[in-house]
Amino acid sequence: MEIHRFEKLWLVAAFVLIAAFIATIVYGSLVAGVSMVSDDGGTVDPDDITASENFREPGVYQAGDGEYDVYVEARQFAFVPGTNSPIRVPANTEVTFYITSSDVTHGFDLVGTNVNTMVIPGQVAQLTVEFDETGTHHIVCHEYCGAAHHDMEGTVEVVAQENFDTEEVTEA
Amino acid sequence: MTFIDKYPNEAKLVRWHFGVGFIALAIGGLFGLVQALYRTGFFRSALPINATDYYTVLTGHGVLLALVFTTFLICGFFVWAVTRSLGRPLAHQRVAWVGFLSMLVGTVLATLTILNGFAPALPFESADVLYTFYAPLKGHPAFYVGAALLIVGSWVVGAEYFLTYREWRADNPGERIPLQTFMVLATFIMWYLSTLGVAVEVLVFLVPWSLGWISQVDPLLTRTLFWYFGHPVVYFWLLPAYVAWYTILPKLAGGRLLSDPLARVVFVLFVLLSTPVGFHHQYLDPGIADGFKFIAMTNTMMLLLPSFLTAFTVVASLEHGARQRGGGGYFGWLRALPWGEPAFSAMALAGLVFAAGGFSGMINAGMNINYLIHNTLWVPGHFHLTVGTAFGLTMMGVSYWLVPQITGKRLQHKTIAAIQPYIWFVGMTLMSNAMHRGGLAGLPRRTAEPLFRGEGAAPFDPVFGTIAEMQLQIAVGGTLLFVSLALFLVVMAGTWLTQSGVARLSVNGAIPAPLSGPEDSPRILDNLKVWTAIAVLLVVIAYGLPLWSMIADGVLLPGSGPFPV
Fold first, then answer.
1. Is B143 in contact with B127 (CB distance < 8 Å)?
2. Rounded mean pLDDT of B44-48?
3. Region B464-492: what's the mean pLDDT?
4. Are A103 and B136 within 8 A, CB to CB?
5. Would you call A121 an interface residue with chain B, using a CB distance cutoff of 8 Å?
6. Which pLDDT value is given to residue B105?
7. What is the CATH number of the domain that holds A116?
8. Residues 268 to 287 of B: which have CB under 8 A from any A CB?
9. Do A53 and A28 fall within a single domain?
10. Closest alpha carbon to B66 in B388, B442, B288, B300
11. B335 a catalytic residue
12. B319-342 tens-digit pLDDT
């Protein structure tokens, strides 16, 4: 089978490009530290999400020095907390979100950031982030979840550490 | 001799497939226009829908175009390809008709349940579950039964290709499989392997669950089974476009395909790699270990290879054709191509758009970059380039060339036909670039009201341009696409309804042999059993452990009861 010289060159160039794409992702994972949402969050019973140790009452908890855990319940058509009351977290701390659904599949996306995950009943999505700047982020549910899906939104307020009232933290 | 004179029964079968596909295209296309205008806020108050109906429209648009239009066009197109390339009638006509009827009944059932969303008083309850129908949102059982009948019907039509091939093989021992038949069989091996996932999802889980026979299903497991099918299905759309680009387009350009063996290599690569990639739709799913996502990512990137090979071969074949027509120069030969012929221009523009779609797909496939665009407007921006244009516009081009051959009628309204692909191209360029940029700015997909109305939060922040300008481009682009689609259907209806035998057909259905034929290529390329076995092995490697971990804690656990919409 004869392969034309130009075609061989093209083939090699395509392989190099593919290898380069894969290399950027490996770089992102190993060097830049972008880790994927995975099975670390464990599973829960969607009808009783706090029954197992993998999920707590929704709210913000202090997990350690400069570390906060945020438990969010997504349900038709609100984030708890997030929709009726904003999620408040301090800047420059390690914030770990634990998000699950008590009804259908939802999405949890902080617009314009890498904080983005699917929220699937029975699974806990776990994401650790650090907010460098103070400000307000818009949460959208980006997976269709029913007739009023478009109303499902919320806010995350990132405040300076000195303005963060420790009383806002749910007692562990 | 035209196809209809030589194979009248097969021509009828192709006509029925195309006819149903065109009806689906008409309804689905109209829904697309309504969506584009409603979502962007143009004439919103004049439109006869509210925000909840938007999801009915969205479900109808997705199901009718991505599942119904595609499957009918593909199955019909392949009947032509197998018959023509083997040079013999189908082995068991009835089998193909049974498959077609199953697809038709399934389509009618699913469409009725979807349309029920507009009028809940009708006997079915709503099925506004979108074409991905993730549990535990629950549609009417007839929706799932309809989807199953559509897929099983395509299996039966596919069996017809294999039966006909078997008869041909008995009469032609030792010969190389004709190229188009090889492509059809390869595509369907991939289709059988990948639809297994959605078949199990629907038949084992969703149908019994929607009927109340089982009380719960595992949302992650059913979703994973969907995406096991949900990515290969895009190659089920793409490969028929490749069949057209490899075998019809070079002829229309005035030449012939450069290399038959490399075309076979490309299809073999798709058989091997199309299925073990579905987790790249689930990069942001909890419950799946990141290692499995990494495997899917590398497989996905490797799939760039056959598409790059295709780009080379198809462009080189076009250049060869252009030079046969007297074209010259480094790029000057482009002018010698028959840009006024709609069959040619539709396919060539579709190929050009697919190149752009391929690059935006690489971003989707980039596991960690995916965080930025997952479930944003970027994603529909991407697949309107691929299924919406690489497939859709190519099939319009195929229709301009093939419908005269299966009806025995001369193509009508040639001026309209000549401009239609260009309107599509412009409309898609406007709509898709704005959707990609909107996605980068964080605009979500699948929502009737995309703009945040809360106080004080950061607005959607485009990299360049403004949200208002993007909305305008989406509305204008969507309108142009609808106009283009309507013009296509006018040409098809005009051709179909004209009298036959009035004028001589101006189309010549012969396809010249490739410059480099299959004779000197390794015979193993034609050994579909070997490739199937390796493909199954790769699927087991990619899916064995993650599926096992999902069912190890109980097949239906963690489980969710139904939430009717």
1. yes
2. 90
3. 96
4. yes
5. yes
6. 98
7. 2.60.40.420
8. 282-287
9. no
10. B388
11. no
12. 999 999 999 899 999 999 999 999
Nearest CA-CA distance, residue A170 and chain B, Å: 24
Give the pLDDT of residue B502: 66
B320 is catalytic: no
Total of domains in chain B = 1
Tokens, residue B547: 């599926």
pLDDT of residue B520: 79
Chosen from B129, B280, B285 to mutate, greatest number of chain A CBs within 10 A = B285
Same domain, A60 and A145: yes
- Are A30 and A43 contained in the same domain? no
For position A4, what pLDDT does the model report?
Answer: 81
Segment B267-321, tens digit of pLDDT? 999 999 999 999 999 999 999 999 999 999 999 999 999 999 999 999 999 999 9
**Position B205 pLDDT exceeds 90:** yes
- Please give the model's pTM, rounded to 2 decimal places: 0.96
* Number of domains composing chain A: 2
Band (pLDDT 50/70/90 cuts) for residue B198 is very high
Q: Which ipTM was obtained for this model?
A: 0.95
| CA B185 to the chain's CA centroid | 17
- Is B382 catalytic? The answer is yes
A24 and A49 co-located in one domain: no
What DSSP line would sit under B301-315, residue for residue? Answer: HHTHHHHHHHHHHHH
Query: For residue B533, is it within any domain?
Result: yes
Do A52 and A23 sit in the same domain of this protein? Answer: no
Q: Is the pLDDT of residue B454 over 70?
A: no
Does residue B170 sit within a domain? Answer: yes
C-alpha–C-alpha distance, residues B198 and B204, integer Å? 10
Interface contact A44, partner B, CB < 8 A: yes
Does B446 contact A143 at a Cβ distance shorter than 8 Å? yes
Could you please report the per-residue DSSP string of B363-422? HHHSTTTHHHHTTBTHHHHHHHHIIIIIIHHHHHHHHHHHHHHHH--PPP-HHHHHHHHH
Q: Is residue B407 one of the residues assigned to a domain? A: yes
Q: Is residue B62 part of a domain?
A: yes
- pLDDT (0 to 100) of residue B453: 56
Quote the CA–CA distance of A106 and A83 in Å, as a whole number: 14
Which CATH number covers residue B339? 1.20.210.10
Locate B291 and state its tokens. Answer: 């290692």
Structural domain boundaries, residue B308? 3-446+462-564
Contact check, Cβ <8 Å, B219/A150: no
Is there a contact between A118 and B553 if contact means CB atoms under 8 Å apart? no
Cβ within 8 Å, pair B446-A111:
no
Q: Whole domain around residue A6: which residue ranges?
A: 1-34
